[in-house]
Amino acid sequence: MKFTADISFKSQRAQRDELEKIKQYYDTSKEEEVKLLDKPEQFLYELSQISNFAERAQCIIFLSVFSEGITAVHRKVDVINRVSKELLDMITVKEVLGLILAFGNYMNGGNRTRGQADGFGLEILPKLKDVKSRDTRINLVDYVVIYFLRHYDKEAGTDKSVFPLPEPQDFFQASQLKFEDLIKDLRKLKRDLEVLVPYISLLPAALQDFDIHMISVITTE
Questions:
Q1: Distance, CA of 23 to chain centre
Q2: What is the rounded CA–CA span in Å between residue 125 and residue 120?
Q3: Per its UniProt entry, which superkingdom is the organism in (predicted)?
Q4: Confidence band, pLDDT 50/70/90 cuts, at residue 84
Q5: How far is CA 104 from CA 120, 137, 144, 215, in A?
Q6: What is the pLDDT of residue 7?
Q7: Angle (deg, nearest 10), helices 168-176 and 53-89
Q8: How far apart, in whole angstroms, are the C-alpha atoms of residue 31 and residue 157?
Q9: Please, where are the H alpha helices in 13-153?
Q10: What share of the chain in percent tops pLDDT 90?
Q11: Higher confidence at residue 186 or residue 8?
């Protein structure tokens, strides 16, 4: 959006020779003749009367871009926070993971080392679907779901039944986020802000000047 806004403002700024001609026309023409100028020329002339217009315009653009940028970062961080909190706080998450551990220990019961595990690495979760029953009709994921619904979810089969894990869409969004990208976005916003800090004091005057010089153009028939 910043790129688009920059182009929009720059495209409205006249070239030096073009602006000189417009100013000369304003200075040497009568009021009625000035009104005959096309709106674009009137617009460019009014912009030229605003001191430090380019710097002020960049400040105004950045106000919008900064707000959108921070909101985007907050939204991404909120997804990670929400999923992390649900994983830590939801009792049903612990119950599902407990079932996976118990079934894993049961299947490895003949092995004293692997059959008495106190936990497991999360990297095994995608592999659960590869563990199939003897008749290959269901896999371990299916069995965990069936067992959970039968023995843990008292509302199973009703509209009160709640998904026992964080929403899959939230999981997916959180998995796509990289902290390096968030840090990069924040650093860019910081750099852009530091560049514009010297111009911030011009904003109130810019708004006032803009009103004074542009209202006549906007309201002209």
A1: 44
A2: 9
A3: Eukaryota
A4: very high
A5: 9, 19, 11, 74
A6: 40
A7: 130
A8: 80
A9: 16-28, 31-34, 39-48, 53-89, 91-107, 140-151
A10: 37
A11: 186
In this structure, is the dihedral angle defined by the CA atoms of residues 204, 206, 212 and 214, taken in order, positive or negative?
negative
Q: How far apart are CA 42 and CA 65, in angstroms?
A: 28
Yes or no: say if 5 and 65 are a contact pair by the CB < 8 Å rule: yes
* Distance (Å, whole) CA 57 – CA 42: 18
Record the tokens describing residue 38, joined without a space: 């096309």
- Tokens 């709106």: give the residue: 39
Rg (CA), the chain: 32
Q: CB-side exposure of 131: number of CA atoms within 13 Å?
A: 15
What does the DSSP assignment read for 91-131? Answer: HHHHHHHHHHHHHHHHHTTT-TTTTT-S---GGGGGGGGG-
Q: Contact at 8 Å (CB) between 28 and 20?
A: no
How many CB atoms sit inside 10 A of residue 146's CB? 11
